[in-house]
Design a protein that fits this description.
single chain, mainly beta, five-stranded parallel beta sheet, four-stranded mixed beta sheet, 24 strands, about 0% helix
């Protein structure tokens, strides 16, 4: 006979099983072996990307629910940075999450929170601003900075690029005119809708 018995539930660890055999004359023999049960790492699917409209100069608050799943523990809340309920600044912000089970195994994932302004936008020298989805303000000026528009973003007005400014437009649109009066560049990929009115090429 063995202890623990065959069919027992073994914990997540290495467990020694001791077995004893006896013949009809009372002679015995013993032996041991290990049953090792490994921990399953949790899994994590991040929430969908979030697009908000700014509610004030600081941006907009965003709330979300992020949970991981674990075979042994079931649902495990993710720890995300920034946390749900934080105020996110204008632009596209990465949220990084980690799920940790009781054995220390982890799963990670990330998503974005994009906050679009309601008024005009000015991207100055040295600035890089990315928008991913939604409608961006009422006119955008890229004056020496870098602007990235992705994932169906719409500029709600004219887009003006000047003084060495750079704009990358991917699967996005401009509802007004695209103007490049002096020393700016605009690169376009994917579907895009706009009315071009270039004063000069940059």
């Amino acid at each position: 006979s063995c202890s623990p018995l065959s069919g027992s539930t073994f914990p997540i660890a290495a467990t020694t099983v001791t077995c004893t055999s006896a013949d009809t004359h009372g002679n015995t023999a013993t032996g041991t072996f290990l049953v090792t049960v490994l921990n399953n790492a949790p899994t994590f699917t991040p929430p969908a990307n979030i697009v908000k409209t700014a509610t004030g100069p600081s941006g907009a608050p965003a709330t979300f629910t992020a949970n991981g799943s674990d075979v042994e523990q079931g649902i495990i809340p993710a720890v995300c940075t920034p946390a749900s309920g934080s105020t996110f600044p204008v632009g596209t912000n990465a949220v990084n999450c980690v799920v940790t089970d009781s054995a220390g195994a982890t799963a990670t994932g990330s998503f974005t929170v994009t906050v679009n302004p309601t008024g005009s936008v000015n991207v100055g020298p040295g600035q890089t601003v990315t928008f991913s989805g939604g409608t961006v303000g009422n006119g955008v000026q890229v004056n020496g900075g870098t602007l990235v528009l992705t994932n169906g973003t719409t500029v709600g007005g004219n887009l003006q690029v000047s003084n060495g400014g750079s704009v990358s437009i991917s699967n996005s649109s401009v509802s007004g005119n695209v103007q490049v009066p002096n020393g700016g560049t605009v690169s376009i990929s994917g579907a895009m809708g706009c009315r071009t009115s270039h004063s000069a090429s940059g």
